[in-house]
Amino acid sequence: MVQYKKWQLYIVILFSLLGLIFSIPNFIKSNTLNDLPSFFPKQQVVLGLDLQGGSYLLLEVDTDSVVADNLNNLVDEIRLILRKNKISYTQLNLENQIITLKIKKQDKKNDLEKSLKKFANDIEYKFINENTIILNYSDVKLKSIRDMAVLQSIEVVRRRVDEFGTKEPTIQKQGIKRILLELPGISDPERLKKLLGKTAKLTFQVVDDDVTTNELKSGKYKPGITILPSDKILDSNGEPILYAIKKKDKISGNLLINASPSLEQSQPVVSFQFNNKGGRKFGNITTKYAGSRLAIILDNKVISAPNIREPITGGRGIISGQFTFEEVTDLAMLLRAGALPAPLEILEERSVGPSLGTDSIQSGKFASVLGFILIIIFMTLIYGTFGVFANIALIFNLLILLAILTLIQATLTLPGIAGIVLTIGMAVDANVLIFERIKEEIKSGLSPIASVDIGYKQALKTIIDANVTTLIAAVMLFGLGSGPVKGFAVTLSFGIITSMFTAIMFTRILIIIWLKKNNPRVINI
Amino acid sequence: MPLLNIIPTNTSFKFMSLRKIGLFFSVTLILISFIAIFTKGLNFGIDFTGGVLIEIRSKNETINLTKLRDDLNKLNVGEIQLQTIGSEKDIAIRVQKYSPGQDKQLDSIKKIKSALANIEIEFRRTEYVGPKVGKELIKAGLIAVIFSLLGILFYIWLRFEWFFALGAIIALIHDVFLTIGFFSIFQFEFNLATVAAVLTIAGYSINDTVVIYDRIRETSRKYKKVIFEEIINLSLNSTLSRTLMTSLTTLLALLALFIFGGNVISSFVIALIWGVIIGTYSSLYVASPILLILNADKRNTSNQNEY
User: Fold this and answer.
1) Which of A1, A267, A274, A424 would bridge with A279, disulfide CB 3.0–4.6 Å?
2) What is the overall mean pLDDT for chain A?
3) Chain B within 8 Å of A389 (Cβ-Cβ)?
4) Is A383 in Cβ contact with B2 (below 8 Å)?
């Protein structure tokens, strides 16, 4: 006599109930849902950006430039060490992340090695001949510099996105030096992209007015200064104005504690405030250089260079420079959020407008419901009563699948809906396999009950083999990266698993109960 | 009580006697696919080539494509492709080939958007894939396909004998190749979703093959005296109704998606529909005859006891 075990029945009932309970919120409007009592589950499936509208941005941190910055500082430090130890050298340069140093006298070799000890684990060096040494960062140090730069960038990106007023953004690290940004509801991210494209490194540095225009143009000038172009202000030929900027005595923008847009003589400006340390430094420098010009430099461009009329000790000031109001708003925001350690490159952008998202949900819903109904009709027509059993199992299959997707908060995308529809089509496959097998057993002269028993047993191996192979392909899809396709892999994989459960266990119990109740001499399927 | 009996039962088709025709058919399709891939190539989407895709919908009147093309070409961002999708009001703008010296492809989005500012439109979708990512996605796609094939090969080899694994994988490669050929012939856009479709087809096709192989193995154990060709015929006939039923239900669901699922996923669904058809065919006429060719019938040799 064909039997099912008690625990099988309990499991089927349990999972079906759980499936029902946790999938229900998806069929209720969220307003109505909030009015329901608290014990009622309220979690709904998460819609992907392609369904709810929004932007997906993949950013890459230019970690090489951070490494280069660090190496440049290291060269400066080495130069100081050499000077302190009175080691004279003929060459000290940086190329391809490797510092080459040629000292004049070999007898200083020991002194040099001793003083390099302070970099211990950070750098590796070796003498390639008697007086030439090459230095580079150790792999550990390089990795920590890069990781740090990415972490800082994520933090700054988060602050900028928050300042921008985005609801529920997702910001996460991807791979070694990439940042994935998902912004629901923002379908035109042009302004945000512009903001993310700015490093926003702000410094206040003194202009060296002793350098003549000719010296500036020829590029021959005294050491200790750099030449930077103006940002917007042009000279009479329409060219950017060049400034000679002193390298020493600079104040960094990361000492700011506040920045906000305001108006000064009806011109949009950014007013800022330093923290204590910055304020003191600002006071000192403006005292020392009173009468000179103070250049306000953003991302290596001089925004403006006003005269220091008197020492500024309050730690407050303004930045002016032919701005529009939008520009000062953005600049103030960037200054508040802080500078990025390195430039960000936008590698990938995918934005979906709200109307397309709504259309996609509509068509996805309609297509799934239609596919579902077609299959239900088809199965009933072909297999009669057994078809109805398969259909009941199919309904619960969908509810359980939806409940799983809701509970693990998987993202449902449009290809994900296609995955569900495909699951519907393939879910009945297990039942088709079983029913066809039962038919064959009946044909070979077995009783209905024995046919059902053997049909299930024989078909089971095939179903498992067939589904495992499909599952292998589905799991490989996870590795395919971007959101929508991943959504497909998720629904397809879970769909295969739930369909095996409902098609095998669920229908088997239904059929056995039916057989016991009716005890038919022949079954028509 | 079944109301409909459109699925044949009790068939006794001599499937294998037509295997030469099947072989001819497959070889022809493969040749056509080869020629198409080498002459026409694939219509790669921006996922793989890198570039910009902007979909717009006109709010009022239909958009004058010629004028729009002229306007956009003036921007000099690169080769602009325009295409209506679905209705006259929906237009896809693609930039895949960039003017030399256009190092900031991303800026073309801004330029195109501002050039469109004077017409009443709505931006439905904007996608930009940088050249770096495009290359990586090609790699990721290839790796996913290769590893799925290897994974499936390994599983079949574990569960069956090696020649079954070989037969299954040849049928799979056949299906994957014909799907790619299909995309080349009709120049449907080949993108990341298409790769997903190809993998799904691989899964579906192997599903079908495994069911038939399972039956061949079982039948060959049952009828030890029957020649192998007849074993295959018997097995194909006894699984035929299942093969057809499953293909039909899957196709029903896919047709619903194709007709009503919207154009965002239509090329994805087309690939799946083609894959279901070709996957069903290949289980009958690629995976099964290969067993004959490989002389997989080992019952009369020393391995007899394994059956």
Assistant:
1) A274
2) 86
3) no
4) yes
CB contact under 8 A, B264 and A466: no
The answer as to whether A223 is a domain residue is: yes
A248 domain residue, yes or no: yes
Domain assignment present for residue A342? The answer is no
When pLDDT is averaged across residues B246-272 and rounded to a whole number, the result is 85
Q: Are residues A47 and A70 in the same domain?
A: no
Number of domains chain A contains: 3
Are A417 and A448 in a shared domain? yes
CATH number of the domain enclosing A377: 1.20.1640.10
pTM of the model: 0.81
CA distance B68 to B115: 9
Q: CA B277 to CA B254: how far, in whole Å?
A: 12
A292 and A371 both lie in a single domain: no
Q: How confident is the model at residue A297 (pLDDT cuts 50, 70, 90)?
A: very high
| Residue A242's CATH number | 3.30.1360.200
Q: The tokens of B192 are what?
A: 């990341």
Residue of A421, A432, A436 with shortest CB distance to B253:
A421
Question: Which of A302, A318, A334 finishes a domain?
Answer: A318
DSSP B56: E
Weakest mean pLDDT among A79-83, A139-143, A325-329: A79-83
Q: Which domain holds residue A240?
A: 202-318
Chain B residues with CB under 8 Å of A379 CB are 249
DSSP state, A190? H
Read off the pLDDT of residues A41-62 as tens digits, 9 standing for 90 and up. 888 888 888 888 899 999 999 9
User: Please, are residues A281 and A193 in contact by the beta-carbon 8 Å criterion?
Assistant: no
* Number of other CB atoms surrounding residue B74 within 10 Å: 11
Do residues A362 and A433 both lie within one domain? yes
Q: How far apart are CA A462 and CA A478, in angstroms?
A: 25
Residue among A353, A374, A415 minimizing CB distance to B256: A374
Query: Does A77 lie in the same domain as A41?
Result: no
B176 close to A493: Cβ distance less than 8 angstroms:
no
What digits encode the pLDDT tens for the residues B132-156? 888 888 888 888 888 888 888 888 8
Q: Which of A244, A262, A254 is nearest to A320 (CA)?
A: A262
Same domain, A385 and A459: yes
Which residues, numbered 24 to 53 in chain A, qualify as contacts with chain B under a Cβ-Cβ cut-off of 8 Å?
50
Asked which of A113, A136, A159 is the last residue of a domain, the reply is A136
Do the chains contact at B262 and A432, CB–CB below 8 Å?
no
Residue B266 Cα to chain centre, angstroms: 12
Q: Tell whether A524 lies on the interface with B, counting CB pairs under 8 A.
A: yes
pLDDT band at A180 (very low <50, low <70, confident <90, very high): very high
DSSP B143-184: HHHHHHHHHHHHHHHHHS-HHHHHHHHHHHHHHHHHHHHHHH
Say if residues B255 and A368 touch (Cβ distance below 8 Å). Answer: no
Q: Do residues A291 and A390 both lie within one domain?
A: no
Closest by CA to B233, choosing from B60, B11, B16, is B16
Domains and CATH numbers, chain B: 15-44+133-306 (1.20.1640.10), 51-129 (3.30.70.3400)
Q: How far is CA A321 from CA A211, A226, A295, A296, A335, in A?
A: 23, 21, 11, 10, 15
A341 within a domain of the structure (yes/no): no
A432 and A408 assigned to the same domain: yes
Q: Quick check: helix, strand or coil at residue A113?
A: helix
